[in-house]
């Protein structure tokens, strides 16, 4: 049970005093006691401490003689005075209106007004004759006209069926008393607000508005009226459908009511109860499980109080939220209680309430709220602790948010020990528990080094021994099974700086079943402690899988939160703001709730701690997946994650998930380990038989293709064995159409491939030059050198292969322009027929066309290739001036062009060859017949010997004449086309484009178009009207003065009108 209050008697009537206490009133440090003799005693309350109550013990501890003037024991109260003739009858009720400095007393069925200072009778309110009870309230009200706040006090007196009302504004009584008549005698009055009062009668409760005198029945929902209608009956009504109490001598229980927290009231009659709001509407809450009808009700922040009948003499303290019994205080023959009005003491100071009997008055001293919460937590009553925290104001507690969060985590831990894993994880999520604390609840197979299950097993014998001895420390040992969760009794849950828990915290409270008697309820409360101690057996088997499934959802949510603050490389997404030394002591980043540490805030490396938490979450989630849901582990480590590589490698290797292991190593950028594993399985060097997908170089090649160019050394190291095993497949590492392959350091790749096989280097160089258009001269020269080395080595399977390599060399020499021609020419043997054409191509690149043609004509004797060479050279020379055309359609040069062409060089070699070669007429005549138009007549005829018949030159002359005619005809045609174009331009200027207006009429254009000049139109240059001045019209119809024409040059026409 909770020890929230401690009863301390402050007033006890002496045995010889025959009077009885009828009423009490406390305000300030005064306590007024009304007796059955009509006397009024005024006491002063002294604030005492333990030191004041035990002076002798203090003196002994100081070890010396104390002065004789040592202060005596301080009494709880001092009797200041006694008004023996205060009233002729018992003083049944007392109240004050402090603002008016008056004391109200109910005695002899009248309400009397006394002076609060002298206790002299001021007035006996005759209209209250027959009064049974009264109620007082004071509130601050703003004047609707001026807005000035005033204190409005009201007195409501129950006189049989009437309620008589008096009002004081500030210190003065205003107006006459008002009367409100009800349906039955009023037994109790309770102010709900400053203008509404709840009246309790035998037929039930009503809400009375004292301003408009409106009376509203308080209806309990779900009840049917006696007439069978759908309307509800008044709560507490005594009717044929309710309890008649006919067997009790017509005794009817007194209607009770008390005001709870702001805007809520509790009504009670017998053991029935009803919660209502300030407007009299019933709230959907269960009844208070009283074992018997209470004698009186009260509310002392934040608890609900009910006093049992004097025969039982017990004060029950309940939580108004959960309605659970928290404490029972035995007070012999106590029959009434008094809580100071909220307007006299602060709400939280109302805990110093009074309980009275006929002979004694007890003052209830309360523990501080921190101690009360600690006691509830130690007893395992987490719901009650959370409810109490939510009801208390933030200023009354140190770190209220942190306490709520800590208790929620302790409750979740207790649920976990009860094998309610899903509920526990949901509560951990709501509490934003640090993952380290949650993970520690699991065995080492899941939590690794964070596991605390071993320490639990070691402590079981100690716990059992303490249970046998009945020590209260049982709860402490059982509440904290792990060192991570262990918290001392006095400091239970006082964690600093946790994120605020929102209003939804109330939703975590577990429902408590209604109990039929107090014993059963008390037993259930005590039983909660023993239920949350330790599991009956270690977490394994089916329970472990269920717990792991629940953990997966918790960790998945943690991963989402962590990704908001940290990147995969361990850096924060948003840098933490710079803090001064004083600010750093209190600064907490938004992710602080994920970190479990007791170090001072200023000394915490938040980024490093968050990275540690991220690693813990991902590694634990991986272990959880591997245990309960192996199929979900793959997506986890294929995506960016913070898993510890050692843990994942060991687990995946043990389970034979080699492909997943490689994916994980790739994601963690542990490429060397992954490639070593791939090489082991690809070469069948592993002791374990790997899957077929890992056998051979295919997977290694695919892996190397994904590596960035910065890792070229690693790529080349592990690319060797695929290249030697399957060169075609291995070359895909360097030839693939990917960005990584295209951006590899090409010098290193070429050197690496050349060491393995020159063919591979040639293939790579051809790829980067022809497909990637690499113009680096070094690569071009390297490719030529490799071709020549291959040809000189004569390592060919047959002549066809050799011919293919020679053709590849010649084609490259022809197309490339970035190799060193002089160097290549020196490398080509002059007397080897295999290199004749290559030498000719290099000479052509060097501009030595005559030497190149000599190779074609004299060495190769291939006249067709010589003619093709001339065609290509001629077209390349004429291409910059005109588009290239084929030899059959190329235009002939001018008949008067005396400059010799490449064809002239070839013709000279045919007709005037160097020694010892002789003239070769057949190819020469073929050349003249096909390309005569490109051979100038004066130079060509000089080469022809006089003995050659003119008939043999017929084709040459015909070609020349046709070429000349073609040029002349072309010029004529162009001249005629230009004349037609000129006519069209002139027509456009004179006539323009004829347009059709909106009415379908043809509008002339050009110089025949019309331009309207009206009074609103002005010159675009000088902005003056035209009048009768000469004007000029532009093609866009803009108009300027003739004199302004020069100034208008260069101006935009868009602004002209």
TrEMBL record:
Segments forming domain CNH: 18-344
UniProt cross-references to PANTHER family, sorted A to Z: CNH DOMAIN CONTAINING, VAM6_VPS39-LIKE PROTEIN
Name of the protein: Vacuolar morphogenesis protein AvaB
Membrane topology classification: Peripheral membrane protein
Pfam family, one: zf-Vps39_C
A GO biological-process term: autophagy
Domain of life: Eukaryota
UniProt keyword annotations, A-Z: Membrane
Broad class of where this protein is predominantly found: membrane
CHCR repeat spans: 737-898
Gene Ontology terms: cellular component: endomembrane system; fungal-type vacuole membrane
Compositionally biased region (Polar residues): 59-69
Region Disordered, annotated ranges: 47-76, 450-470, 503-524
Location(s), subcellular: Endomembrane system
InterPro entries membership: Clathrin_H-chain/VPS_repeat, CNH_dom, Vam6/VPS39/TRAP1, VPS39/TGF_beta_rcpt-assoc_1, VPS39/TGFA1_Znf, WD40_repeat_dom_sf
Protein family according to the UniProt entry: Belongs to the VAM6/VPS39 family.
């Amino acid at each position: 049970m909770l020890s929230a209050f401690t009863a301390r008697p402050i007033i006890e009537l002496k045995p010889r005093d025959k009077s009885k206490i009828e009423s009490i009133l406390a305000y300030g440090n005064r306590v007024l006691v009304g007796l059955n003799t009509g006397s009024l005693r005024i006491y002063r309350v002294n604030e005492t401490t333990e030191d004041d109550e035990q002076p002798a013990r203090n003196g002994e501890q100081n070890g010396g003689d104390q002065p004789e003037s040592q202060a005596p024991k301080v009494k709880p109260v001092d009797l200041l005075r006694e008004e023996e003739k205060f009233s002729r009858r018992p003083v049944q009720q007392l109240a004050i209106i402090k603002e008016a400095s008056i004391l109200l007393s109910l005695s002899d069925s009248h309400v009397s007004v006394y002076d609060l200072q002298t206790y002299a009778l001021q007035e006996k309110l005759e209209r209250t004759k027959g009064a049974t009870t009264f109620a007082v309230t004071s509130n601050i009200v703003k004047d609707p006209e001026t807005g000035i706040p005033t204190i409005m006090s009201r007195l409501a007196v129950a006189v049989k069926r009437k309620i008589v009302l008096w009002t004081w504004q500030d210190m003065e009584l205003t107006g006459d008393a008002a009367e409100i008549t009800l349906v039955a005698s009023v037994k109790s009055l309770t102010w709900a607000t400053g203008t509404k009062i709840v009246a309790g009668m035998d037929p039930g409760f009503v809400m009375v508005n004292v301003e408009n005198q409106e009376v509203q029945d308080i209806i309990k929902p779900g009840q049917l009226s006696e007439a069978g209608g759908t309307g509800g009956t008044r709560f507490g009504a005594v009717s044929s459908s309710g309890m008649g109490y006919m067997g009790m001598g017509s005794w009817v229980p007194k209607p009770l009511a008390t005001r709870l927290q702001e805007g809520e009231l509790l009504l009670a009659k017998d053991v029935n109860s009803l919660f209502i709001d300030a407007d009299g509407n019933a709230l959907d809450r269960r009844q208070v499980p009283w074992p018997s009808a209470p004698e009186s009700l009260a509310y002392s922040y934040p608890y609900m109080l009910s006093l049992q009948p004097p025969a039982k003499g017990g004060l029950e303290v309940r939580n108004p939220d959960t309605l659970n019994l928290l404490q029972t205080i035995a007070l012999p023959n106590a029959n009434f209680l008094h809580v100071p009005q909220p307007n006299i003491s602060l709400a939280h100071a109302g805990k110093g309430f009074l309980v009275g009997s006929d002979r004694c008055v007890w003052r209830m001293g309360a523990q501080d709220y921190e101690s009360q919460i600690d006691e509830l937590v130690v007893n395992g009553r987490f719901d009650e602790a959370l409810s109490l925290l939510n009801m208390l104001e933030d200023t009354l507690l140190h770190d209220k948010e942190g306490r709520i969060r800590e208790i929620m985590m302790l409750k979740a831990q207790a649920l976990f020990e009860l094998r309610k894993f899903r509920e526990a994880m949901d509560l951990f999520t709501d509490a934003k528990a640090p993952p380290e604390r949650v993970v520690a609840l699991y065995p080492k197979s899941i939590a690794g080094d964070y596991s605390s299950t071993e320490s639990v097993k070691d402590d079981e014998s100690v716990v059992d021994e303490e249970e046998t001895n009945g020590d209260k420390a049982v709860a402490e040992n059982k509440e904290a099974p792990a060192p991570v969760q262990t918290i001392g009794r006095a400091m239970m849950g006082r964690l600093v700086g946790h994120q605020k828990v929102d209003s939804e915290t109330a939703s975590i409270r577990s429902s408590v079943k209604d109990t039929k008697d107090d014993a059963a309820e008390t037993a259930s409360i005590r039983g909660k402690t023993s239920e949350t101690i330790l599991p009956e057996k270690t977490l394994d088997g089916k329970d472990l899988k269920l717990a792991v499934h629940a953990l997966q959802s918790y960790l998945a949510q943690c991963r989402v939160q962590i990704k908001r603050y940290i990147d995969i490389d361990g850096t924060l997404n948003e840098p933490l703001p710079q803090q001064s030394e004083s600010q750093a002591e209190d600064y907490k980043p938004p992710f602080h709730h994920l970190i479990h540490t007791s170090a001072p805030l200023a000394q915490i490396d938040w980024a490093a701690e968050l990275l540690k938490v991220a690693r813990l979450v991902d590694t634990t989630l991986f272990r959880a997946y591997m245990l309960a849901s192996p199929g979900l582990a793959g997506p986890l480590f294929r995506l960016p994650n913070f898993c510890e590589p050692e843990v994942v490698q060991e687990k995946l290797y043990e389970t034979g998930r080699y492909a997943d292991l490689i994916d994980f190593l790739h994601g963690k950028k542990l490429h060397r380990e992954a490639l070593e594993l791939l090489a082991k399985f690809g070469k069948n060097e592993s002791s374990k038989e790997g899957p077929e997908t890992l056998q051979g170089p295919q997977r290694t090649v695919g892996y190397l293709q994904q590596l960035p160019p910065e890792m070229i050394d690693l790529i080349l190291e592990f690319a060797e064995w695929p290249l030697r095993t399957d060169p075609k497949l291995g070359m895909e590492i360097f030839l693939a159409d990917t960005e990584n392959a295209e951006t590899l350091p090409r010098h290193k790749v070429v050197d690496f491939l050349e060491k393995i096989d020159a063919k591979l280097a040639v293939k790579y160089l051809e790829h980067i030059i022809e497909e990637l258009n690499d113009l680096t001269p070094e690569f071009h020269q390297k490719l030529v050198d490799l071709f020549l080395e291959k040809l000189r080595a004569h390592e060919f399977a047959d002549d066809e292969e050799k011919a293919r390599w020679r053709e590849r060399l010649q084609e490259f020499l022809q197309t490339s322009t970035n190799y060193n021609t002089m160097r290549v020419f020196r490398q080509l043997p002059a007397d080897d027929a295999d290199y004749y054409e290559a030498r000719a191509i290099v000479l052509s690149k060097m501009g030595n066309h005559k030497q190149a043609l000599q190779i074609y004509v004299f060495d190769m004797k291939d006249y067709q290739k010589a003619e093709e060479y001339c065609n290509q050279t001629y077209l390349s020379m004429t291409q910059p001036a005109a588009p290239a055309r084929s030899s059959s359609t190329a235009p002939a040069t001018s008949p008067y062009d005396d400059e010799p062409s490449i064809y002239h060089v070839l013709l000279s070699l045919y007709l005037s060859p160097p020694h010892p070669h002789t003239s070769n007429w057949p190819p020469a005549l073929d050349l003249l017949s096909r390309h005569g138009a490109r051979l100038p007549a004066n130079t060509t005829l000089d080469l022809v010997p006089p003995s050659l018949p003119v008939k043999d030159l017929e084709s040459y002359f015909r070609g020349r004449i046709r070429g000349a005619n073609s040029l002349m005809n072309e010029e004529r045609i162009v001249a005629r086309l230009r004349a037609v174009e000129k006519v069209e331009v002139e027509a456009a200027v004179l006539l323009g484009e004829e347009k059709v207006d909106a009415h379908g009429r043809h509008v002339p254009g050009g110089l025949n178009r019309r331009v309207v000049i009206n009074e609103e139109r002005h010159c675009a240059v000088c902005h003056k009207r035209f009048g009768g001045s000469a004007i000029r019209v532009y093609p866009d119809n803009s108009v300027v003065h003739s004199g302004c024409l020069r100034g208008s040059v260069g101006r935009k026409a868009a602004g002209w009108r």
